[in-house]
Specification:
With 338 residues, the chain is mainly alpha-helical. The protein is built from 14 helices and two strands, in the order H-H-H-H-H-E-E-H-H-H-H-H-H-H-H-H. The protein has a two-stranded antiparallel sheet with strand order 1-2.
């Protein structure tokens, strides 16, 4: 029932989001525009002469990007919580977001043009992966990786990246500084089909690997020693999982900037609803992340007339108090943290 509800909600909010804007298109006409592409004429085309063009050029790429990024961030958050055995873990722990921000800022300040319009996104992607690999490489000792050491190294890398980001903002001119700040706040504005086609295969591969590992996450939740006795290579599982998280988050933030709390709140909420088994939890988190980000982007586009709010700021404003409520509810239900 949860999967069906989330899927129906995703379809409904996507149709509404695609039709909402300065040029309004009814949900039936949005659906008609999609179905006409595959030869089904059950629903009408948009009445406005520019309606169909606006949908396929501007609205649909943005909605598709929101679906992909929401799914990627929520799935990455669930994987992090699985390998750390902590429902409060989130992708920022391994430095991918801060590394991506540092790479994007460097590209903005130095005016990188090696890949044209995709230079900033490529720099963010590469820097996010590099930061993650650095965290993991430094935290390894004697062929093993301790979770506590990895978290501490992640904090150090995040602090270094924050200092580097501050330096770039100090060196930047006014225009570059505004671009850095806006990128950090996150936005889906300007998403186009070429961007979607770059993000799509990375997210799909990451999700396929995460789904394939879901059974091992169930065994890992029993503890490291029991998981090893049951045939799980814990170290290899952590390596693959961290690479998957880095790919998902780097692909998400490369084109859209930093979008907070999706990878933290959605898996935690879904675990409260359906329990800790990781395969259904991953499906629910993927759908829930997409629903949340499409809805948040719709609010970002419509809350203030003639303005586009940064979606990362919006998810933080909503996610912070909501997660605080979740923590208090969990603590009260458990009778304390001890």
């Amino acid at each position: 029932m949860l999967f069906v509800s989330l899927a129906v909600a995703l379809v409904a909010i996507s149709l509404v989001a695609a039709g909402t804007g300065q040029l309004g298109v009814a949900p039936a006409e949005v659906l008609g525009s999609i179905l006409h592409k595959v030869g089904i004429t059950w629903f009408p085309l948009p009445e406005h002469p520019n309606g169909d063009s606006a949908l396929w050029t501007i609205r649909f790429p943005r909605v598709a990007m929101a679906i992909l990024v929401g799914a990627a961030l929520a799935a990455a958050g669930m994987v992090m919580q699985a390998i750390f055995g902590n429902p409060l873990a989130e992708p920022g722990v391994v430095g991918v977001s801060s590394g991506a921000a540092l790479g994007a800022s460097a590209a903005i300040v130095f005016g990188a043009t090696f890949l044209g319009d995709w230079s900033i996104a490529a720099s963010a992607f590469v820097a996010g992966l590099a930061a993650t690999l650095l965290v993991y490489g430094v935290s390894r000792a004697n062929g093993k990786t301790e979770v506590v050491t990895l978290v501490l190294v992640g904090i150090a890398v995040n602090a270094f990246a924050g200092a580097g980001l501050a330096l770039f903002m100090f060196l930047a001119d006014t225009q570059s500084r505004e671009a850095i700040v806006f990128w950090q706040l996150g936005s889906l504005n300007g998403s186009r089909w070429p961007d979607v086609f770059v993000v799509f295969p990375v997210v799909v591969v990451g999700l396929i690997v995460a789904f394939a590992l879901s059974r091992r996450y169930d065994l890992l939740s029993l503890g490291e020693k029991p998981a090893r006795h049951l045939g799980v290579n814990v170290e290899l599982l952590r390596i693959v999982s961290i690479v998957v998280v880095a790919l998902l988050v780097a692909a998400a933030v490369a084109f859209c900037g930093i979008i907070a709390f999706v990878g933290l709140v959605i898996p935690h909420l879904m675990r409260m609803i359906i329990g800790p088994k990781h395969l259904p939890l991953l499906i629910a988190s993927t759908l829930g992340g997409s629903v949340l980000l499409v809805a948040a982007d719709l609010v970002a586009r419509t809350a203030v007339p003639m303005a586009d709010l940064p979606i990362g700021m919006l998810t933080s404003l909503i996610g912070g108090p909501f997660f605080f409520w979740l923590l208090r509810r969990t603590r009260k239900k458990a009778g304390g943290w001890g």
